[in-house]
Amino acid sequence: MAESEPSYIDYEVFLDPGFSPASFANSLVVATNNATDSPLDLSTPLSRVLFDLQEIDTHIHTLTSKSALPLLSHTRDQTAAAGKILQQSEEQIAAVTQGYERLEREVLRKWETADEARLAAEKSLATVRLTRTVGRCLNLGRQLESQLAEMNGRGSTTATTTSGEASGREDFRALERAAYTILNMRRMFLATAEGEEGHGLDRVKVVRTLRSDLLNPAESLVKSRAQQAINRFSMSSISIGSQAPSGYKQSRDTRARLTSAVTTLYVLSPMPKTMIPAAEYRPELLQSTLHGYMHTAIGTSLTALSRAFTVLPTLERTLSDLSARCQDIVALEYILGNTKLPSHPMLLSSLERETIETQAPRKPTNLLQLVLTSLDTPSLPSYFWRSLASSLAGRVQEILQRGGVSARTLRSNRERLRGDIKDCVLRGSLLPTASGMVDKGRGEEGLTVGNWEREAAVMISSVAGAL
């Protein structure tokens, strides 16, 4: 049709995808004006554009007038086809809508109901678990109160003998049982992660009250009682003589008290965060208490011995007390050596350890090995004598530097001091007779004299070396 009615307008320019109105307008202005004209004449290019627009409008009108019937037929066909497509689409949409409504009735609403039931069941289960945990906490708290009452001599009738006397052994075991009860409660309060036993306990007021009003004071009390039992431990002060049955009972009670105390501090020491072998566990509370006991014994002995060197008539009594104090340390070592590592719920047992460790080094099997390792010493009496000797030389030197009667008396009794100190060391390195731990048929002289000659020499040199 464009060929039957030629036009001067180049339609290809306008139909080009890269056509730019600004560039076309600029070309018209440049074609109708000189570059040096000022001002530019825009009426001519504007008339050209308007004329072209009129020509294009006339051409479009002519084409649409001649092709009206084909255009209307094409539009009618397109409208009819669109109507059929719309009708079929509406039918399909209606079918899909009905299917969705059916699916919603049969699945979605039932799923919503089931999901509500699931949430209710989960909350009920969490409530049951929390209730059980709270009930267990309360039972442990009641049990702890009973054990504290037994510790204070107000326990059940099992804590008394048929004669009405208090059974000390039962009280000591109550201290140990209270420690395990406290440990179990602490484990529950630490297991607060999702899915663990203690999850949600911190939101229960009665549990918070139980923890603040019972658990924390009880733990402090039990630790204090155990530390006092260790700090006051003494076997050498037990009298036997004519009251042998009474002395044996005191010895038995003292051993039981110490065993319960060390077990309590072993259990109540800071817990490991994960399960570890017992050999890797370091009971800091127990070690620090035993270290304090040793250092107190060394410090007290050093002060008493230094004072005795200035007042020599009191030396015999001081050396006797010194040997008795060392005998207590020997008894402590003996009891620790015969006390196996207590069971701990956060530690792997020996059987479990063997399953995960193929080549395990030599592990400690009793509490004594843990203490000796922490002090870096082969034995507690050796540590006592060597630590005392290392500090004693300076004290003797101070006495000699001050001069006077004390210094002259020490120098004149040098040989006597040698014998007395040696006897003190050898006597103090024996187990106390009243402890009931000395084997029958073995005299005191045949026990450990040969093993403590070196410690005796160290003590003698610390004094005689300065003299």
Automatic annotation (TrEMBL):
GO cellular component term, pick one: Golgi membrane
Q: Which domain of life is it from?
A: Eukaryota
Question: Which keywords accompany this UniProt record?
Answer: Golgi apparatus, Membrane
- List localization entries: Golgi apparatus membrane
Which residue range or ranges hold the Conserved oligomeric Golgi complex subunit 5 N-terminal domain? 12-144
Q: Which InterPro entries match?
A: Cog5 (IPR019465), COG5_helical (IPR048485), COG5_N (IPR049176)
Keyword Transcription recorded:
no
Gene Ontology BP annotations: intra-Golgi vesicle-mediated transport
Q: Which residues cross the membrane?
A: none
Q: For bias kind Low complexity, which ranges apply? A: 153-166
Q: Where is this region: Disordered?
A: 149-169
Segments forming domain Conserved oligomeric Golgi complex subunit 5 helical: 201-423
The membrane-topology field of this record reads:
Peripheral membrane protein
Looking at the keywords, is Membrane present? yes
Q: What is this protein called?
A: Conserved oligomeric Golgi complex subunit 5
Which source organism does the UniProt entry give?
Aspergillus ruber (strain CBS 135680)
